[in-house]
Amino acid sequence: MRTTFHKLFWLWQLPKEEAWINEMAEHGYGLVSAGRVTYEFEDIEDGKYKYKALFFKGSFTSEKIREFLKFMEEMDVHNTGHVSYPGHTVIYLRYDSSVEDFDIYSDLDSKIEYERTLVSYLLFATIVTFSHGYLT
Amino acid sequence: MPQQALTEAVFYIMLSLLKPLHGYGIIQNVAELSKGRVRLAPGTLYGALNTLTDKGWIDALPENPESRKKEYVITTAGRAILAEEIDRLSELVENGRKLLEDS
């Protein structure tokens, strides 16, 4: 059975959003698709899967994202949904919870680079939003 | 100019690619070689494979229609880098052992 929930998370709340999706999975709801405020779940065995919510600059159809997701598929990490925004995309990945200590990045440099890209983008988006509000 | 030291992960990835291997195979091989000490996450491996391909140290093999998994292999330039790094590491080990024994 599929169930839809409505919830709003801002981009800076990505870790909170990921934690909520994983909490839903612990209670037998596996994410199958996502919209800006809509999350669709299917019934799964409690805690069967875990999820990662990742930020990417650019469009979902970009070569960079497609290649990344293709590689993740090879690793048994599946794309269960994405939400496109102007300038960025949030991608939801699902993996089997039996895989211990799973993370997308294992080295510090990649983790720092990911966080740096996200923070720079948030700063840029904030400045653009406020400038637009100030000028109009 | 001498080549910058390779990270442990890159060293093991290149060593794994002395024979053609796909991503999951590399992760398993690196874990086996390092007795489980070096565990590569998929995003880290993906980034490393792209960087090494851009540098010309490894190559992606033409895709096999029977397998959805992309394979990679080390290039001649990559072998030279690997050999240079092994020499550097040997020097470190040799000097380290010698000075430790003499102290």
Core attributes:
heterodimer; A: 136 residues; alpha+beta; 3-stranded antiparallel β-sheet; 3 helices; B: 103 residues; mainly alpha; Arc Repressor Mutant, subunit A; 59% helix
Structure description:
The complex is a heterodimer of chains A (136) and B (103). Chain A has 2 domains: 2-104, no CATH class; 106-136. Chain A is of the alpha+beta class. Chain A contains 3 helices and 6 strands, in the order βαβββαββα. The model of chain A has no long low-confidence stretch (mean pLDDT 91). The N and C termini of chain A lie far apart (47 Å). Chain B has a single domain, classed as Arc Repressor Mutant, subunit A (Orthogonal Bundle). Helix content of chain B is 59%, strand content 9%. The termini of chain B are far apart. In chain B, 26% of the residues are buried. The chains are: A alpha+beta (136), B mainly alpha (103). Chain A binds chain B through residues 68, 70-77, 101-107, 110, and chain B through 7, 9, 22-24, 27, 39-44, 46-47, 68-70.
